[in-house]
Every structure is written in C-alpha cells, then in structure tokens.
Design goal:
Blueprint: E1 8-14, H1 21-30, H2 40-44, H3 52-62, H4 69-85, E2 88-95, H5 97-101, H6 107-125, E3 128-136, H7 140-150, E4 160-164, H8 175-183, E5 187-192, H9 199-208, E6 212-215, H10 223-231, E7 235-238, H11 240-245, H12 257-262, E8 266-269, H13 274-277, H14 281-292, H15 296-309, H16 314-330
Parallel strand pairs: 1-2, 2-3, 3-4, 4-5, 5-6, 6-7, 7-8
Helix pairs in contact: 4-6, 15-16
The structure holds hypoxanthine and zinc ion.
C-alpha cells in the first residue's frame, strides 16, 4: 500500500523544526546575519544528538535566523508543500513564540507569516490546518503567563496551546495558563513522557486537561495509565524517527509503536522536527512500517487515528474519513 496516497493529519510538527539548513543559510543572508558554520553541509554534520537537550541547544540557535513575517511564511510554505506530497490533508503547526520574542521578533509577525502560509496551502493543496502556540516548559509558568498576555489580540488566530522544550520543572505549574486558554476556546495539548516518567502524562491529563498527549512514549511503563488512555481514547502523537535520533529508543526496530497499537492506544505518526531527524511524515511512515513490519491494516489505522484526533469540524472530519476510505478501497 502506498502510504503517501493515504489522507492523514500531521498533529506533532514544530514549524521551526522544519527549517532545513539550506533555508537557514538563505534566510541568514536575507537578514544580514552570519551563522557560525561554513555552509549547510557543515551544519548538517552536527545533527547527531545524545538526547532532547543536545538537540534543543542547536534548534534554538538555528532558528535565530527567523526574523520577519516573510521568513515564517517561507518556512511554513516549504513544510506544507512537502506535507501535501506525503498525503497530509490537515496540519496543526506548533510554534514557539517565546523563543522569537526573546530575539525581538513580535508574536504578531510570527502568527501573520504562518497564517498566510496556511491560507496559501488551503488554496493550492486543499489542505486545512491551524496554529498551536507552545509554551516553553523550561522557562516556567511565569514566562508562559507573560507570552499569554502578549498574544491576547492574536487568540482568534490560534487553534490551541501546547507545552514543549525540556521536560524540567513541575508540569502541573502550567495549569492556570492552560485553564485560561481553555476559557478562550482554545484546544489543549502538551508534550509529556518523551524522556520523563509517566507522572507527567497523568498530570497533563488531570491538571492541564489536555485532549492529546505529544509523544507519551513512557506511558507504557504504567498499566493504569495505559488503561486510562485506552478507555478515553486519548490520542498520542508519536514521532518514530525523532525518538531514535534523540535516543529515547535504542533503534527503530525496538520502537514501541506496534505495541502501542496492539494495546488499543489511539497512536498517530508524526515528524516532530523533520529537518533535524532525517525525515518528514512520509519518511516516518515508511521507516516505521519497514522496521516494525506494520501491516496495511495497521498503517490505515494510524491514518484514521490522525483524522479522528485532528481539531477539525465534524464536517471536515467526515470528509477526510470518507477520502481515506475511498483511497484505501481503491488501493485494494
Ligand atoms: N520535545 C520537546 N520540545 C521540542 C521538541 C521535542 O521533541 N521539538 C521541538 N521542541
Ligand atoms: Zn515535539
């Protein structure tokens, strides 16, 4: 089965993580900035990570070339074109406004560029999507409250809020800002259990009230948690190539994706930071299917889960599920 033809949603994608080395150098030139590496090839050679933090250090440095709305537009447009080629019909883009604001780039610029790129993708590819503002966990709840205050005029342009960066400090400390986001009608997600223990996943569900868990890999260590996630069919946005590159799992052949599916978890496949981890969503489907020997039925189920977990209207969901059924049956 050609998984690239199957309609799917990408639900765990940091748009700054789609910044390819070539584009980073082009934007640096455009903005009169000098990167500390000779060329894209030299930068690419540094993409060997021990863990999440070793990746984040480089990720925040490279995204320093993003300065204007046009930069964010070009970045998101390049990603959305790639995603459309992988069968993505709906994409929810994470972005890290605190990381840009600290360099003097206003959230308004960031959101304008990204929104224009989503409008462009809707027109050119019929792709739907939205923006999820991620708070940086390692900067703490005070900094989250500060950016939340600054983006109040932009809330209408957002689909949801999330939580990312290093898994340090109590996750439940973000409960007040998540409650405010919910009151403003936003959808809630959070990274949890990527490297840190299952405790964070419980807190993401019970203190933050998230509707999906990003990664959630370590849920498997806690049977009661798995039972809860299965009972409520809480979607987990899993990123196989990311987990290997950041050494959360030892090898793709040992990735728990197949075990998670077998236990009845609502898992989806996503790319996380495709420019850094060796592939886009299609590459993640390809590599995980080959390494884990996933059946056509399992691949279809992953695509269906993504459409069921997407923050879309009932009409859009029905349309996308019907498309999936049509493509799957014509594929034999
Ligand atoms: N985890 C946490 N924060 C991130 C990631 C990730 O995989 N990618 C970009 N920010
Ligand atoms: Zn992520």
């Amino acid at each position: 089965m050609d998984h690239r033809a199957l309609p799917k949603a990408e639900l765990h994608l940091h748009v700054e993580g789609a910044l390819e080395p070539e584009l980073a150098f082009a934007l640096a030139r455009r903005n009169g900035l000098t990167l500390p590496w000779a060329d894209p090839a030299e930068l690419l050679r540094l993409y060997q990570f021990r863990d999440l933090q070793s990746f984040l250090d480089l990720y925040y440095q490279v995204m320093g070339v993003l300065r204007t709305g046009a930069d964010f537009f070009d970045l998101a447009r390049a990603y959305l074109d790639r995603a459309a080629g992988d069968g993505v019909r709906h994409a929810e883009l994470f972005f890290d406004p605190q990381a840009h604001w600290s360099r003097g780039v206003a959230p308004r610029e960031v959101v304008a560029g990204l929104t224009d790129a989503l409008d462009d993708a809707r027109q050119r590819h019929g792709l739907s999507g939205g923006l999820i503002l991620c708070f940086l966990r390692d900067l703490g709840p005070g900094a989250a409250a500060e950016i939340w205050g600054a983006v109040q005029p932009l809330v209408g342009d957002l689909l949801g809020v999330g939580l990312d960066s290093a898994e340090v400090g109590p996750i439940e400390a973000f409960a007040p800002v998540f409650a405010q986001a919910r009151q403003r009608g936003l959808r809630l997600v959070a990274h949890a259990g990527e490297e840190a223990p299952p405790h964070d996943i419980w807190q993401a569900l019970d203190s933050l009230g998230v509707e999906r868990v990003d990664h959630g890999l370590r849920a498997l260590e806690d049977d009661a948690l798995v039972e809860r996630l299965v009972r409520d069919q809480v979607p987990l946005t899993v990123c196989p190539l990311s987990n290997v590159r950041l050494q959360a799992v030892a090898a793709l052949e040992r990735h728990p994706l197949a075990a998670m599916l077998a236990r009845g978890l609502a898992v989806t496949v996503n790319s996380d930071d495709p420019a850094y981890f060796g592939g886009y969503i299609g590459d993640n489907f390809e590599a995980a299917s080959a390494a884990l020997g996933l059946s056509d039925e399992a691949v279809l189920r992953l695509c269906r889960h993504s459409l069921e977990a997407a923050f879309v209207s009932p009409q859009r969901r029905a349309e996308l599920l019907a498309e999936l059924t049509a493509v799957a049956s014509s594929d034999g």
